[in-house]
Amino acid sequence: MNTVQPDLAIEASGLVKHFGDVRAVDGVDLAVRQGGVYGFLGPNGAGKTTTMRMLATLLKPDAGTARVLGHDVATHGAEVRRRVSLTGQFASVDEDLTGAENLILLARLLGRTRPESKRRAAELLDAFGLAHAAGRQVKTFSGGERRRLDIAASLVVTPDLMFLDEPTTGLDPRSRSQVWAIVRALVAEGTTVLLTTQYLDEADQLADRIAVIDNGKVIAEGTSSDLKSQVGGGTLRVRLQDPFQRAEAEQLLSAALSAPVHLEGDPTALSATVADAEQVAYALADLARSGMAVTDFALGQPSLDEVFLALTGHPAEERRDATEEDAA
Amino acid sequence: MTTTTAPQPLAEDAVRSTLSIGERPTPVSSLSASLTFGWRALLKIKHVPEQLFDVTMFPIMFLLLFTYIFGGALAGSTGDYLQFVLPGILVMTVTMITMYTGMGLNNDITKGVFDRFRSLPIWQPSVIVGALLGDALRYSLASAIMLVLGLALGFRPKAGVVGILLAVGLLLIFCFSLSWLWTLFGLVMRKPESVMYASMMVLFPLTFMSNVLVDPETMPGWLQVAVRLNPITHLVTAIRGLMHGTATSSQIGIILLMSAVFVAVFGPLTMRRFRNLH
Predict the structure, then answer these.
(1) Nearest residue of chain A to residue B38 (CA atoms)
(2) Interface ipTM > 0.85
(3) Contact in structure between A201 and A169 (CB atoms under 8 Å)
(4) Is the Cβ pair B27, A143 closer than 8 Å?
(5) Residue stretches of chain A with pLDDT short of 50
(6) Which end of chain B has the smaller Cβ count within 10 Å, N or C?
């Protein structure tokens, strides 16, 4: 961790940040390889945003060190800023200006000439499906349009590393899939993306590796399948036609899944945490062979809550005090 | 789904074609970055012109009320009073507008766009310097509005056009320097509203406990002391003097000195706070 590894986009050790008495970030170590998407998964107030802001040179760590693209964030902030972009959790565009003006402003600040800036703005607005909104003030934009403009604003000059803070929180499903498409395009062109999210599903879809953050600490790190194997593949819910068969079904399922089975409030329903999907197929086949008719079954991905329950023994709960600072 | 006006689907390929990693324009100079932020301020005046009128309407009302209601009683005739009060009202108007500097800055921080600017490879204080440049234009516009109205009502400065230009120039220097106090407020306080109330608390007593509206000679002695210590009083004296051709170099000198002190004190405090922002 102490030697510089050139293929690491981010390496951090022992990062700490206090806000008053709250340790928002409490000793975070990171090693993020270049290329692909690295996900920070955790509830509000876990310290995701604070960590990201320290890496983007917006916040000075109280302790610990971090190198971003080989440059120390504390001593070579300007070098870091030259090569990264940040899209914050809240719209980091000027609401009073139009979509085009926002992009032209950034292109000018990044050293483009006026005609180049106009061309670049038009090009980005087109590609991000915002050409129709180019001349409108951002305050009239929908949530999805605003978020796309926000991301486009970070790509006026293509960054080597992009910080994306909860890019899909509060978006409708279509806008969400649009943002995912943008992230995939970025990665395909070679940008490394550091993404924070509250959704396991999103981390699973996009991220190559995930760090689970809770109370300012990294409590688990690995690929999505690493995490799932720690957490279990998800929850199987089964509903039987005949409630009187439930006791028998419970025994059968717990044997087939080698896991405890919970009886739900609904007298026909059972649920169990399963390690891998294949077991589920066998378990359901067992039920059918024993003559127990199943009206409905579902295999759900573990929720963030279940991940936290499995990793920490407590559900993901918001830390009120830290949330406020996280947002600040 | 609120994006009903966006019929075209988002193509991953279209996004990819706009990206080119590794290609990087040369960083801009601090002057160029500041000017670009000044341009942003102009765009804001274009899109939100109300903020200019909000702050000029009040002094225009004052000018009309004081000139026509009290003018005769205070100075013998409304015409004579106008010659006295207009430079004062001009100072009042423009110093009041300076508080928008802090509010604007605070708004940028609370809304989140400030984070974007701070993550850019630019000379960091250019955000503030650029905003102040834009403000200087706002001060000039407000001065023009007041002066045109004054001239229409019968204001006749004895020092003519040169006097007016020098007076406005001095006023701009003072207000630019005073703005550094508001930028500090803007960085320290949590909400734009708090910044506004705090600036009002400073500006209201300062502009009224001065020689803006009346000659302080009739005030009680203790109040005269307060009025004489008030920087606004000195500013009004200098502006009035420049417009009517009676200003002395010491009257102008003290304003330049005060401006320098404001910048020397609040400039570094603002920048220190700016660097340690979270």
Answers:
(1) A105
(2) no
(3) no
(4) no
(5) 1-2, 320-328
(6) N
